[in-house]
Amino acid sequence: MPVQRGADGSGLTREQTAAVHSVEALLPPLLVSLLPYGHIPNRNRAAVLEALESRSVDQLRDRVTARWTAYGYEPAIHDGELRSAVGAALELIAPTRYCPDLSCEDGTLIDTGAECRACSERKESRRAARLAGKTVPTGRTGKAKAPAPECADCGRPFPGTAPADLVCQRCHDEAAAAFAALAARLTGEDQEQQDEGAEEREAMEQEAQRRRTARRAGGEAPVVQEPPTEEESAPAAATASAADEAEDLRCGPPSAEYLAWRHGTRAPQTTAAPF
């Protein structure tokens, strides 16, 4: 956008100055009270006009509102840890840091609501480098709108004291959520494998039961031993009687009493031994 020197010596036209003021009106009053004379300095107003090239005033209002909460500027001000009010104001207004896609709104494409692939890849690359022990660039990038230090994962600036690991709470929460989702997925897969094993065992048992039923229906039932009939038992009884008589003959001729007892006419008499 061509810049012409305005009447106030800022180098902006009257229209550009009005546009900057309209954006300044979007800033939280608590932050505006900390700006020099309640305005963004003239040397930083070009950054405001740059933001207006890709967003309307209404869209910038949504951006400022979301970042004011997400970036934690309000608690930093109350705790007296805010490093730069001007830097915070520009950070609320400026396009998404390090993303070449102007439709990206802090990792989400404003037109479709889909995740910005460039931001996601950059964040994962920085996180992998940090976990591998490699140096991740943090701090100022040479621009006044980038206060230091910044999150080692997402690159968002810390409004106040940076944590020891240089990772913001939002990135910690995202990593914890991703880990929990992975653990839940692995647990679900393990349970699914157990269920499949149980179903397979049940199917095998059902198949075995079906085969047993088919064998019984086909006449292969176990044979039940039945008692012999009277005709079948008669020869066996005769054979036993003949064997008994043969044994008696080997012992000598039977007496009359024994023969009578043998044929069931009377009981044998036992003679007492003489004293």
Structure description:
The protein is built from ten helices and two strands. Helix 1 packs across helix 3. It starts with 13 loop residues before the first helix and ends in a 13-residue tail after the last helix. It is rod-shaped and about 155 Å long. A hairpin with a 2-residue loop joins strand 1 and strand 2 (108-109). Mean pLDDT is 77; it is low at 1-7 and 140-147. With 275 residues, it is mostly helical. The chain has a two-stranded antiparallel ribbon.
Radius of gyration computed on alpha carbons = 51 Å
Strand content: under 5%
Report helical residue fraction. 40-55%
One letter per element, helices H and strands E, the order comes to HHHHHHEEHHHH
Summarize this structure briefly.
By secondary structure, the protein is an all-alpha fold. The chain is built from ten helices and two strands; from the N terminus they run ααααααββαααα.
